[in-house]
Amino acid sequence: MISRAGQQSRQAKAPRYSPPCQGGCPVHTPVQSYVNLVAQGRFRESLREIMAYNPFPSSCGRVCFHPCEDNCRRGDVDSSISIMAIKRFVTDTVRDSGEWVEKQDVDATNGKKVAVIGSGPAGMSAAYDLARMGCDVTVLEREKAAGGMLRRGILDFRLPQDILDHDIDYILSHGIDLKTGVELVANSEVNGDGSKVSIDSLTGAGYDAVLVTVGLSASRGLPIPNTDAKGVHLAVPFLRAVNEGELPDLGEDVLVVGGGNVAIDVARSAKRVSNGKVKMCCLEARDEMPAHEWEITDAVAEGIEMHCSRGPNEVKMDDTGNVTGLEIKEVACVFDAAGRFAPEFHADSEHVLECDTLILAIGQMSELDFCDGSGVERNERGQLIVDRNTWMTTRDGVFAGGEVAAGPGAAITAIAGGHTAATEIAKYLELDNPARFLPPEDQYLESLPAETADKVRKENRATAPQLGVDERIVDFSEIDLGFGSWDAVREAQRCMNCAAGATVVGEKCTSCLTCVRACPYDIPEISEEVRVAQMDPNKCQSCGICAAECPANAIEISMEIDRPGLPAFDKLEAGQDVVGFYCQYGRFANPEAGLNAKVEFEGVQMLPVLCTGRLEETDILRPIVEGAQTVFVCSCPDVSCHHNRGSWRAHKRIARAQQLLEDAGTDRDRVKSFVTYPSGSGYAPFIEELKNMTESKVGK
Amino acid sequence: MSHRSNLERVLKSGEFAVTAELGPPKSASAEIVKEKARMLEGYCEAANITDCQTAIVRLSSIAAGVLAQNEGLEPVIQMTCRDRNRIGIQADLLGASALGARNLLCLTGDHQSFGNHPKSKNVFDMDSISLLKMVKGMCEGRFECGEEMKEAPTFFIGAAENPFADPFEFRAPRLAMKAEAGAEFIQTQIIYNIDKFKEWMRQVRELGAHEKTYILAGVAPLKSAGMAKYMKKNVPGMDVPDEYIERMANAADPKAEGIQICVEVLEEVRAVEGVSGAHVMAIEWEEAVPEIMEKAGLLPRP
Amino acid sequence: MIKAERKPVSEIMKMLSATGDCNNVVVAGCGTCVTICFAGGEQEVESLVQEVKIADSTCGRDPRTYTETTPQRQCEVEFIEPLEDAVTGADAVISLACGVGVQVLAERYPDTQVIPGLNTTFMGPPVKQGEWYENCAGCGDCVLGWTAGVCPVARCAKSMMNGPCGGSQDGKCEVGKDIDCGWALIVSGLSRKGQLDFIAKAAKAKDWSPSSHGGQRKMTREDLMI
After folding, report:
1. Domain containing B181: what range?
2. Could you give the percent of chain B with pLDDT greater than 70?
3. What is the pLDDT of residue C199?
4. Given a cut of 90, is residue A120 above it in pLDDT?
5. What percent of chain A has pLDDT over 90?
């Protein structure tokens, strides 16, 4: 027997990478996977995949700052995929179907009791994880309804309340007990009716662990004169009041101070409840504003004036104590050379921005009075002292997560904080597999090299329609209208399946150069050093053409079978004698055609494949070997083939398979080829032929 | 003896020499050979007896040559490298010489894929040039292997050259190589493109090859416009000018027109310096030769 | 490398039938030359098995059992030793190797019927993906140094040593418009290098004794023998 040792050393190294969209997401949601399920028209499965990691998909589908899109490598080709809008589409579609996704698996109860204080994204995510791990979880919420800042801080025009309810109800359905109207206080404040509890009262009640996720629930004030004037409001109470329909009496000239996302939300809310002008001022220059660019753009579009690089100096009021304006100074610079916050002002630049309502949205802080006497300590700046490894406070068994522990951040960051806290609590409680909901740190791909990006077919990014500006500002109707299903599917099909590509089995590779020649993207290389084919995972577009062409069967596509699917013919089911392969990015993914991958024709086994260019002759003929009368392949027209040359390759292999059939003494027409346009043309003749195929079976 | 054959005699005398072509039948019919020989006798110095031309099996060149010789027509035996290795060729040539054949044309031979036995295996142990070298050696008393023989064969040795094949610039040098290898006379491919032929002859003269070997210009009568077109399309280098094709197409009597054109070409090439004679190829139309000779004023033969 | 192409399955089936009731068949590919020319690699093994199965079911024959294997090279005994159990237990082996591999297999397993699944065609490179040509005839007496790196034996239909013949036209051979005239390439190659004198002198008849015309060829290197 020949030693294969020498062969092994030739094997190309194939480190595993993950797509950067996933890496960009703080909870590492498997973006590529769920986007691909949408691309196949498999919406419910897509949502369930999302919800294994992100229990707030409906909310994040609307308000997330979507770092996944910033990291999306489609942006290196044309523009990133509208991932957030796709996520929102999935949640809307499944919700509208009347049946939300089924529950996640829940472990048998382990007898551990955990109290979570605060029902924002961090607390609810932690509760969700711990409940799934078999803990008895109680969530305590000070307000009337769960949701934290998602409920109180974000208005309906961005996130309608009933949408949030769906996410929360789903989380709670995993056996979590929610108690609203319960406030965490110092021991001295605890009352008998259970509406005010303390750390001690909770541990005394048998909770094995307590998680504090009370967020940054109070607005900061400004240390300038006259902030107590009538008509001066703070952001958090203002937003809460608007959300609860307790509209404050706004004047006709509203000034919002602050340049962050909350300030923008405040200004846009004010625009909808006041009859007059709304303007904003902030220390930062326009391009330094901490708010997301698209939020600023939307605000400006809604008629909100921006006064950037202005520092508040004094609130002006009239004799009756009503605010009349804000004296401001012009900012020379906000940050010092080291990037620290150290604003400097132009001398003698004071002037007044007039207003009759002033809302301060310059930042938030936690309310931590509950700490008094609890053993949960604060630092000199008044913040909780938390161990950054274990997320435990200074008291054993008491943990903190989300913004109260990690500082201000987005909802998805808080969700990630919830997962982390749950993991640490699970370790503390000595549960099995405590890190199961904590996304692993993978190696992520870098940006797509330009030489490859140039070869990828350009496809424009779709954006969901929005209400026109005039319609928006009259009430709190949701602005984003969401994708239609075909738009969502087509948008999802722009996904390039990064990092799901080809790997070479070194000991099989004969260095024949076939892959080098066949790759539509010129990616495989055979170098002097590694004398077998290598595909740069940073470049591979996962079309699978090389794997189908390789005469040595030395190339594997790392995608799992079910997503961007490989042909997975196994055996014929009873009553089937026709097998159809179809491009899952083509006609059959179009849900508006009243037909998708779920639909099966009677007597026909339908098999999706991501690009029919992936099919080898042997894939095409296998069903015939197993007894099928007919095999058909529905490929896309060349003009719409996601991989440029995939359909073209498919036609060649179909012809070859037909020739092999003829050589074997049977009818070459047992393999049929159809071109079905995603838009629908070519479909009617296909259906007609399909009827003939299935009828011919009857006559047989 | 100052000459080995009649053809050599006429060429050496400085007269304009003429050879014709006799295609043996695809059968064992001696009569057909004899008839064709009688037809050509007196109208040429000698006639080439083709050797399974275009790889179609025909009565052998040497046997047909002997039959022709018996009718008074001097044969030019053709020998190709396609069907025999150097053993078979040498044996046949000894036989041919013994039977009195004195002119020999050395050819590589048409590829068997053109003929009626395309599945056959070819030999091509040698090519026209190495064949010339071998025959020259034989005539000097040596076999190809170097071994001496007691009685050497006697041949006036010739070869063919196609001035119209590619690479054109290598065609005149190749003629010189053939002369060097032993070719005492050269018959060219059929000429229709006279300008190109003249250019080739210029190159031949530049190399002085026309002084080392006698050059017989190949001419052939067209039978029809269809034949002209066919040859232009299918025979390498046979670029029949459109003018001739038109004349053939418009002619009331195409055969007469074909003969007329042949005579015109013959007269033109005859005037080219270095051309010592003509090779008139009336393919399966041997009876046209007397008329061509008559019209060209080449009768009677010396 | 060595090129080969698949025999039509009907011919393979005929050989199988002539062998008897071949219910247990080994289909052996070869992982080197014939893999590269898409005739005998792992993929082609799979494909042939499918084709035989389809042919069998078309004529109503009961299914056979198949063992599919693709050793790195069939032409070396060491690589086919591991097939011993499969081969000796089989009614027939269909070898998708070149003629070299088929014979090594047949010699190593003399009691098993070895059926060639390929026609071995020639030695040559790919022109481009899916197209190959012959460029070496293995004549045993290489003259490429004198002929601008173009072989007159393999690339001239008449293997002329003094070409080109009168059938060369526009760089193509008279035998087929899709075949380059080897001698036209030689002339242009030498003329580019200023070496036309390499072929200006008539070459005598080639010595064919080192080629296949001298009986089965063998090589020995005493120093290498173990």
Report:
1. 6-217+274-282
2. 100
3. 94
4. yes
5. 58
Residue of B nearest to C213 (CA): B125
Low-confidence ranges of chain B (pLDDT < 50): none
Q: How far is C185 from chain B (nearest CA, A)?
A: 9
192-211 in chain C: CB under 8 A from chain B:
196, 200-206, 208
Number of H helices and number of E strands within chain C? 7, 10
ipTM of predicted assembly, 2 dp: 0.93
C187 Cβ partners below 8 Å, 6+ apart? Answer: B167, B170, C164, C196, C199
Cβ pair B108:C165 closer than 8 A: yes
What fold, for A1-17+499-559? Alpha-Beta Plaits (3.30.70)
> Per-residue pLDDT for A595 more than 70?
no
Q: Do chains A and B touch (3 or more CB pairs under 8 A)?
A: no
- All CATH 3.50.50.60 domain ranges in chain A, comma separated: 113-216+366-428, 219-362
Q: How far is B54 from chain C (nearest CA, A)?
A: 12
Give the lowest-confidence range in A272-281, A685-694, B273-282, C146-155. Answer: A685-694
Low-confidence ranges of chain C (pLDDT < 70): none
Instruction: For residue A543, give the 3-state DSSP assignment.
Output: coil
- Quote the number of domains for chain B: 1
Residues of chain A with CATH 3.40.50: 578-699
Dihedral pair phi/psi, residue A549, rounded to 5°: -80, -30
User: Which residues of chain C does CATH 3.40.50.2300 include?
Assistant: 2-123
Identify whether B72 is part of a domain. yes
CB–CB of B130 and C205 under 8 A? Answer: yes
Among A30, A259, A14, A59, smallest CA distance to A150 is for: A59
Subunits next to B (3 or more Cβ pairs <8 Å) are C
Confidence of residue A593 (pLDDT cuts 50, 70, 90): low
- Tell me the one-letter amino acid at C167: G
Q: Which helix (H) or strand (E) holds B90?
A: helix B86-98
Q: Is A209 in contact with A336 (CB distance < 8 Å)?
A: no
The model's confidence at residue A528, banded by pLDDT at 50, 70 and 90, is confident
pLDDT of residue C142: 96
Q: What are the backbone angles phi and psi of residue A354, rounded to the nearest 5°? A: -75, 150
CATH hierarchy code of domain A219-362: 3.50.50.60
C68 at interface of A, judged by CB pairs closer than 8 A: no
Reply yes or no on whether the pLDDT at A609 is more than 90: no
Instruction: Answer yes or no: do C202 and B177 touch at CB < 8 A.
Output: yes
CATH architecture of A578-699: 3-Layer(aba) Sandwich (3.40)
8 Å CB contact of A621 and C51: yes
Average pLDDT of chain A is 88
Q: For position B201, which CATH number holds?
A: 3.20.20.220
At residue A342 the predicted structure's pLDDT band, cuts being 50, 70 and 90, is confident
Using the Cβ of C46 and the Cβ atoms of chain A, whether some distance falls under 8 Å is answered with yes
Query: What pLDDT is recorded for position A336?
Result: 85
CB count within 10 Å of CB A234 equals 20
Distance, in Å, from the CA atom of B162 to the CA atom of B175, rounded to the nearest integer, reads: 9
Question: Rounded CA gap, B269 and B220, in Å?
Answer: 12
CA distance B1 to chain C (A): 30
Fold for domain C2-123? Rossmann fold (3.40.50)
Q: Between chain B and chain C, how many beta carbons pairs sit less than 8 Å apart?
A: 98
| Whole-number CA gyration radius for chain A | 30
Architecture per CATH, domain A24-102+446-492, reads as Orthogonal Bundle (1.10)
Whole-angstrom Cα distance, residue A217 to residue A404? 9
For residue A248, the model assigns a pLDDT of 76
Contact A519, A546 (CB under 8 A): yes
**Interchain contact, C166 vs B181, CB within 8 Å:** no
pLDDT of residue A598: 40
Q: Do C36 and A2 touch (CB under 8 A)?
A: no
The predicted structure's pLDDT at residue B154: 97
Closest partner residue to B129 (CB to CB) among C159, C166, C202 is C202
The CATH topology of domain A113-216+366-428 is: FAD/NAD(P)-binding domain (3.50.50)
Whether residue A514 and residue C42 make contact (CB cut-off 8 A), yes or no, is no
